[in-house]
Write a structure and sequence with these properties.
Radius of gyration: 18 Å
Helix content: 25-40%
Strand order of the largest sheet: 2-3-1-4-6-5
Largest sheet: 6 strands, antiparallel
Distance between the termini: 19 Å
Strand content: 5-15%
Order of helices and strands: HEEEHEHHHEHEHHHH
Low-confidence stretches: none
Structural class: alpha+beta
Shape: globular
Number of strands: 6
Length: 258
């Protein structure tokens, strides 16, 4: 059973060309960019973004994209880049980038693999963003630091095996991988990246997350990082300790999720 069927949500289709330079050219994403030192009145004529207030920011705003996929991802990032040109946003520990990956097209077992893959490689994914020190940020709790989060992921996997999604299994949205939006939006939200206006870095991060989904869809060997990450393997700089920790974490999920 697909996640869209379980949640009774239709997989939206958009009139744009697929982008075959991306690992999964047909997956829509949502992008949220938090910045301080800016006002909503500083911007107008936004086509693919809306601006919302965020109480966790100091004198700041959050750009929230429409669901975009294919060539529209690039269009949205370029539009944001144009809108920010000449402005001087402030980046602080409160600012961050959130990326939602649409999972409505996934089968139950593929979504379970997606969660396991994230847990397996959470450490190098955090290290990719180490300049922001997000592992200690209260708005981005790593699962390896929280038994509660690991138990919730385990319960999700257990229910996915039973072809069911239980809304009570979903933890706080302030997890590094937020599953709380699964039932409301049909997405997994990744909060690991700190505040940035570097469109190239944001674009690369989106592709890395799309690669993770692709690996889950193709049922690749979870313990083989080169097979999982493909062209992004050198970017993550995965070490033996990451693999050992990841295996222990996935074993916990599997044992608890039976």
């Amino acid at each position: 059973m697909k996640i869209s069927e379980a949640l009774d949500k239709r997989l939206a289709e958009f009139p744009v060309l697929p982008d075959h330079t991306r690992p999964h050219p047909h997956t829509s994403v949502g992008i949220e960019v938090e910045l301080e030192g800016l006002r909503k009145s500083d911007f107008n004529d936004l086509k693919r973004w809306r601006i919302v207030s965020d109480g966790s920011l100091h004198d700041g705003i959050e750009f929230v994209s429409d669901p975009v996929w294919g060539t529209a991802i690039t269009d949205a990032l370029n539009e944001l880049d144009d809108q920010l040109r000449g402005k001087e946003p402030h980046l602080s520990p409160r600012t961050s980038i959130h990326v939602h990956i649409n999972v409505l097209d996934m089968e139950m077992d593929a979504l379970a693999r997606f969660i396991k893959l994230y847990v397996m490689y959470e450490a190098p994914l955090f290290r990719l963003h180490e300049e922001w020190n997000r592992t200690t940020n209260i708005f981005c709790t790593p699962c390896h630091k929280s038994v509660k989060i690991m138990r919730s992921y385990s319960n999700i996997i257990k229910n996915l095996k039973r072809q069911h999604i239980n809304r009570t299994d979903l933890p706080s949205k302030y997890c590094a991988m937020n599953t709380k939006c699964l039932t409301s939006l049909g997405t997994l939200e990744f909060r690991l990246m700190g505040g940035s206006v570097d469109i190239v870095k944001i674009d690369r991060w989106i592709n890395i997350l799309l690669q993770l989904k692709l690996a889950a869809l193709e049922d690749r060997d979870i313990n083989n990082p080169e097979e999982v990450w493909g062209p992004y393997f050198p970017t993550l700089e995965i070490v033996a300790e990451d693999i050992e920790q990841g295996k222990r974490m996935v074993d916990y999920l599997t044992l608890e999720g039976i």
